[in-house]
Each structure stands twice: as C-alpha cells, then as structure tokens.
Amino acid sequence: MAQTFYETLALAAFALLGLWWVVVAERRREWAALPYRRRQAYTVSLYFTLTGIMSLVSLISTAHPALWRLAFGISAALGAVEIVLSLAYVNAEPRRERRIQWLLSLTLPLYLVILAVAIHSSLAHDIGVHLKPLETEAVVVSLLLFLGINYGWLLFMEPAYPGAEAEE
Fold first, then answer.
1. How far apart are CA 168 and CA 51, in angstroms?
2. Is 168 contained in some domain?
3. Per-residue model confidence as pLDDT tens digits over 32-46
4. What's the whole-model pTM score?
5. pLDDT, tens digit, for every residue of 69-111?
6. What is the dihedral of CA 103, 43, 136, 109, to 10 degrees?
7. Is residue 117 part of a domain?
8. Residue 61 lies in a domain
C-alpha cells in the first residue's frame, strides 16, 4: 500500500511543480521585482520538489531504510531552513501579504516531524501511534503537500500590483 501511495504522491508532486512553474512564468514580470515574492515562489517550488524527492526515494529504498530516512531527513531539514528564512523576512513584506506568509508557520512543525521520524523511526510507535515509519511520514507529507497547494493558490490568486500593471 505504501508503494502505491508514494508512486501517486511523486506523480502529483512533480505535476504540481510543473503547473507551479507555469504560474511563475505567467507572473514573472510582476514577481521578479519583489524580493519577497521571489522567495515565496521558491518556497512553493520546494514544497512540491521535496515532496516528490521524498516519495521517489521511498520507492527505491524499501529494502534499505537508511536510504529513505536520509532522504526524508535532508529534505525536511532543507524545508525547515527555507521556512525559517521566509519567516525571518516576513517584516519586509507589505501588510496584505503577511497573512499569506503566516501559512508557512503551519508547515514548520510538519517538516520537524518528518525530520524527527527520519532520525528516530520508531517515534510514532513510542508515542502510541501504531503506524510504520513510512506510513507516519506519508500522513505528515500529505499534510505538507496540502498546505503547499493552498499556499501556492493564495499566491496565485493575489491581485496584480499597480506597478506591474503600469509596465505592461
């Protein structure tokens, strides 16, 4: 069952990454002038990229748990660092974008849980959750992807800026 889940998740993550790049290309002129928008666009790309990478590695490492644990750990650490950096720069954003940026604060604990399970694979079982490590990671990665999709949607639906409209 985990195999089918991660196959589907990898396909979905990379398909969403491709669609996100279309959005970025469409809004490039507007977003290129705004450093916080460039960071936000990159953060959304990481949501999809890291989810896809974790899923792919889980498929090839069923016989070697150290491999998926390493991939999940590195991916979660990279994601957490990006979230922390994004949150550190939240004050540089105009007020209306801050509510979008705060969605990021919900994802930091998810990255940390992924990292914790990668380091200590029996963590879920130790706290009374009777799931295998890859099943635990599947639940958390699904939540992460859900938040990434919503973050991307909110950025995409943000109205154009007057400065960007004047350039066209």
1. 36
2. no
3. 888 888 888 999 999
4. 0.86
5. 999 999 999 999 999 998 888 777 776 666 777 788 899 999 9
6. -50
7. yes
8. yes
